Amino acid sequence: MTKKVLIAGFTGAMGQKVIKLVNSLDDFEIVGGLSPEIKYEPKEYGLSNEVKLFNQRDAIPDQFADIWIDFTTPSAVYENVKYALTHHIAPIVGTTGLTDRQEDELSLISKKEKIGGLIAPNFGMSAVLLMKFAKEAAKYFPDVEIIEMHHADKKDAPSGTALATAKMIAQNRPPHQSAPDEVETLSNVRGGDYQGIKIHSIRLPGYVAHEQVMFGGTGEALTLRQDSFDRQSFMNGVKVALEKIDTLHELVIGLENIL
Amino acid sequence: MTKKVLIAGFTGAMGQKVIKLVNSLDDFEIVGGLSPEIKYEPKEYGLSNEVKLFNQRDAIPDQFADIWIDFTTPSAVYENVKYALTHHIAPIVGTTGLTDRQEDELSLISKKEKIGGLIAPNFGMSAVLLMKFAKEAAKYFPDVEIIEMHHADKKDAPSGTALATAKMIAQNRPPHQSAPDEVETLSNVRGGDYQGIKIHSIRLPGYVAHEQVMFGGTGEALTLRQDSFDRQSFMNGVKVALEKIDTLHELVIGLENIL
Amino acid sequence: MTKKVLIAGFTGAMGQKVIKLVNSLDDFEIVGGLSPEIKYEPKEYGLSNEVKLFNQRDAIPDQFADIWIDFTTPSAVYENVKYALTHHIAPIVGTTGLTDRQEDELSLISKKEKIGGLIAPNFGMSAVLLMKFAKEAAKYFPDVEIIEMHHADKKDAPSGTALATAKMIAQNRPPHQSAPDEVETLSNVRGGDYQGIKIHSIRLPGYVAHEQVMFGGTGEALTLRQDSFDRQSFMNGVKVALEKIDTLHELVIGLENIL
Amino acid sequence: MTKKVLIAGFTGAMGQKVIKLVNSLDDFEIVGGLSPEIKYEPKEYGLSNEVKLFNQRDAIPDQFADIWIDFTTPSAVYENVKYALTHHIAPIVGTTGLTDRQEDELSLISKKEKIGGLIAPNFGMSAVLLMKFAKEAAKYFPDVEIIEMHHADKKDAPSGTALATAKMIAQNRPPHQSAPDEVETLSNVRGGDYQGIKIHSIRLPGYVAHEQVMFGGTGEALTLRQDSFDRQSFMNGVKVALEKIDTLHELVIGLENIL
To answer: Quick count: other Cβ atoms within 10 Å of Cβ A22?
Structure first.
């Protein structure tokens, strides 16, 4: 049975990629689009003319679609997801900006309304698998360091993915103290420290977004690396979410938790 | 409660490493050693003088130890494991050379005797985790190639680990056909082919034993790599096996299956 | 003193990048553009209104510019470069398709007209330096293998850069025979063979264009790698050519020969 | 004509490796060994019985050998090299510990005595080539960062090779300022800073000694990496030094300066 999909933020760069993705899938059909900035006919956005376009959320009827894909803005996402849940449309959310408290509230609504969904700050499958594997490997290799590489225009360091990876590793590795007596003859060469896990950030032109987790043990090493060349890669994760959304009976945070 | 350990092949290079490992662990105690070539007192082998040395298997009493660690020879291993199981000592086996049929027979004995055990051709944790992760990633990234690198003295190619990895990936990836229309202008540059998975073997002096699994998807890549610098690394896996052996109620083949 | 530049093929993708590059440099000024397909005013192409546009070669006067940058087509390049040389404009040529014989003829013309120039099939600085360094390292490390990685849409293998690298290495390494007695248990895993240098081609979605040269020696390894993410990278090499063109007194083939 | 070689420090680990190397070469012959700790006959040290062993330097006659290879101790090296030069034996020195002032003095002696020689703190060819190539690439890629990886027992950071590489790059790159406005949300993740070149030190069990130099430019990247698995690798560099020592007419510091 074909699932009906509504795309919130369909006019944006990510929304446009989602349209192409869903159009390429057999078991899903776009039935609606939501955006405050609709200027053209559906076909100008890559949509068939039967697709209904909404410029405000409240016009969308209850159970209008099975799935609500959200790539909108930090200011809109909370109300959007709440609306989807209370109107019995399962949300798949790639928009960032939800606070911990908002996530908790949405989880409660999800339980009350008996509808599942997924909130994923990162839909890149390679990054999500890297984090999952790193967490698992840390059980056996407590000695670990992280290197992340980004283009020179990224002014903040470390990357969110690197820090999230360190957090997942820290949860899972046995108590561990590495080399307390080390000496830096050039300050800071040993990098940043998150609960004993060293993080190193590289910023160079040419690079895009890359993360490497290095584990060392007696006589051996294990290295996990992911490269994101293009945000198009997020569609790999959205596809996985679409295939699994049916099996979710609550609001899940993080794509890695449905793999 | 301290577990009692017997080491079969304790005079060999791996056996000697196992002695050091077990001596360093709090919850395990070496109580016996088996080898046809005993020449010296226990302390010459790094053992305390209370440890009993056996130069033939049949002299070992029933339930003499809790765990039988076996790093012996292809010709001895089958009888050793059979003896361990029927005498209610749980085997942890790093010796290679068991046939599929022998493994099946030992499994049956294990069930009958109601005692678990582990047979692991590869105790390198980095290699075992690499294979496990590669299998899992293949679900989401059907496009994959394998590179393995070994010292120039390794005359056969590909390595057993590379081929084993390809087999595990093949079990788990969706039906997949990559580039049927490709053209080699220099023969064989596209490497070996195992069910559509390309394998490339590098042989160079300086290298030891390394494997890299490369996954590619739209706009992203995931790479898993392991380096074995020294067989000392096998002790990481033996340690994991010692910690888990208690929880096994049958004969398990492959360290990855107890992680 | 500011050098005057004419851009042949200024309406194409590479030509447009060249316009941006030259506009950003202090010591160079665009004075003309050549293209058979001129439709708009100069400013539509990112050029100032003083720039003269030509839709045929013969309209360009003798010594009209100091430098002729050529990113045109295989069918036009030979006549273009000949025209430039005989009209005393030093050519910098990124267009591919010249035969060995045509290159020889252009070299003769260059000598007769006493004007230098550069023909470079690859203006990517990272690829050019990789080849140069690989050639040099081969003197000390005769054991070497090459891996090249490209997107899955590249149907031919190996890449031109990988083969060119192997040729340069073959010229420079001492007579060498590696492992004549090796055995493939899976056909072709040892890759392609160019004069004893093994070449391995990887084709995966997500990847762009990458080359890795691996040298091994007793107890050590040296690895050179280049990644091309975008043809924008060619502008790095064009910039180097512009800075050096003045010092060339003959027609040089290959950017590596002016570094 | 066969060259005569004296090995100072022939009883040490490196000296023993030098004996094996020279014995394997056609054009060189060991004629003497110097060590304060001689206990056995020459053949116990892998030497033929004609080789003369000295336990003090002053017993070695003028022009006793053509070449003096020195792997001794920081306290002996200065007097050894001085002795070699004044007795007309060309020194190849792998011993560390000479001060800048001592090197200057030895250079003067070398000129006065009209005999060349080589002092090389690092005889690893992969490290030496890496530094040479990094210096050259910096001319074209001013954006560069360095990662060095060592075993967890190395308590100081960064490694000497990484710092030496940064110094060579700094000499050769154009004036350069990278990202002055970057922000660390976790302190020190951007690593150490040597004249604008970021250095990152990794310390993990399993690793031996590895260095990676990463260059980035618009749309491309160039990476140089060397791995030292074993000090045996130093013999590659000693061999190169033996082949070139004849051509040196002064005291050269650094193997890279004779390549």
So the answer is: 22
Q: Do domains D3-119+232-258 and D125-228 have the same CATH topology?
A: no
Q: Which amino acid is at A202?
A: I
| Distance from the D58 Cα atom to the nearest Cα atom in chain C, whole angstroms | 36
Q: Among A52, A87, A88, A154, which one carries the catalytic annotation? A: A154
A55-73 mean pLDDT: 96
ipTM of the prediction:
0.88
Instruction: Band the pLDDT of C178: cuts 50, 70, 90.
Output: low
- Mind listing the pLDDT tens digit for each residue in B185-207? 999 999 999 999 999 999 999 99
- Tell me which chain A residue has its CA closest to the CA of residue C232: A206
Residues D222-259: tens digit of each pLDDT: 999 999 998 889 999 999 999 999 999 999 999 999 99
Chain D residue at shortest CA distance from A221: D206
pLDDT tens track for C133-143: 999 999 999 99
Which residues of chain B make contact with A230, given a CB cutoff of 8 A? 218-220
pLDDT classification of C251: cutoffs 50, 70, 90? very high
Q: What are the residue boundaries of the structural domains of chain A, listed by start?
A: 3-119+232-258, 125-228
Q: What is the mean pLDDT of chain A?
A: 94
CATH fourth-level superfamily of B3-119+232-258: NAD(P)-binding Rossmann-like Domain (3.40.50.720)
**Count of C-beta atoms within a 10 Å radius of residue B86:** 14
Task: Let me know: does D242 contact A251? Beta carbons within 8 Å.
Answer: no
- Per-residue pLDDT, averaged over D138-142, amounts to 95
Q: What are the distances in angstroms from CA A167 to CA A171, A195, D183?
A: 6, 9, 20
- For A126, name the nearest residue in chain C, comparing CA atoms only: C206
What are the chain C neighbours of B159 within 8 Å (beta carbons)? none
Is B76 labelled as part of a ligand binding site? no
For the stretch D169-203, pLDDT in tens is 999 997 776 667 889 999 999 999 999 999 999 99
* A220-228 and A209-217 beta bridge pairing: antiparallel
For residues A219 and D207, what is the distance between their CA atoms, to the nearest angstrom?
8
* D231–C contact, CB cutoff 8 A: yes
The residue among D154, D204, D223, D224 with the most chain A CBs within 10 A of its CB, best to mutate, is D204
A151 CB within 8 Å of a chain C CB: no
Token duo for residue B10: 């304790």
Is the Cβ of D233 closer than 8 Å to some Cβ of chain B? yes
Residue A125 confidence (pLDDT) above 70: yes
The rounded distance, in Å, linking the Cα atoms of C48 and A197 is 54
CB contact under 8 A, C188 and B183: no
Q: Say which of A143, A185, A190 has its CB closest to residue D205.
A: A143
The answer to whether residue A230 neighbours chain B at the CB level (below 8 Å) is yes
Nearest Cα of chain B lies from the Cα of D229 at a distance, in angstroms, of 7
Quick one: B125-228 is in which CATH superfamily? Dihydrodipicolinate Reductase; domain 2 (3.30.360.10)
Question: What is the SS3 assignment for D154?
Answer: coil
Neighbours of D76 (CB within 10 A): 17
Q: Is the Cβ–Cβ distance between B6 and B59 less than 8 Å?
A: no
Chain A residues with beta carbon closer than 8 angstroms to that of D219: 206
Q: Which residues of B191-213 are buried (b: 16+ CB within 10 A; e: fewer)?
A: bbebebbbbbbbbbbbbbbbbbb
- Please give the structure tokens belonging to residue D209: 């000694």
Please tell me the distance in Å from C38's CA to the nearest CA on chain D: 29
Amino acid at D35: S
pLDDT band at B178 (very low <50, low <70, confident <90, very high): low
Residue holding tokens 């050549």? C34
